[in-house]
From TrEMBL:
This is Small GTPase. One of its GO terms (molecular function) is GTPase activity. InterPro entries: Rab_GTPases_membrane_traffic (IPR050209), Small_GTPase (IPR001806). It comes from Arabidopsis thaliana x Arabidopsis arenosa.
């Protein structure tokens, strides 16, 4: 995406889904967080099954976009 868009205006969130299946995890939370930080991505883990962090995922993205748009 960054190769096609102005990165100053691009909001990307890395979402780890199926957090309810921790026993089948292939990427550690620490590894995902580290990757997100390195690539300057927002990061959250969610579970669509039990709705863990689903609303927060959208709230975080929208809050960040709002903050970016309203900051001088």
């Amino acid at each position: 995406l960054r190769g096609f868009f102005d990165t100053e205006k691009l909001m990307i969130m890395l979402v780890g889904n199926k957090s309810d299946l921790d026993h089948r995890r292939e990427v550690s939370m620490e590894e995902a967080k580290s990757f997100a930080e390195k690539e300057k991505l927002l990061f959250i883990e969610t579970s669509a099954l039990d709705a863990t962090n689903v609303e927060e995922c959208f709230t975080n993205v929208l809050t960040q976009i709002y903050n970016d748009v309203t900051s001088p």
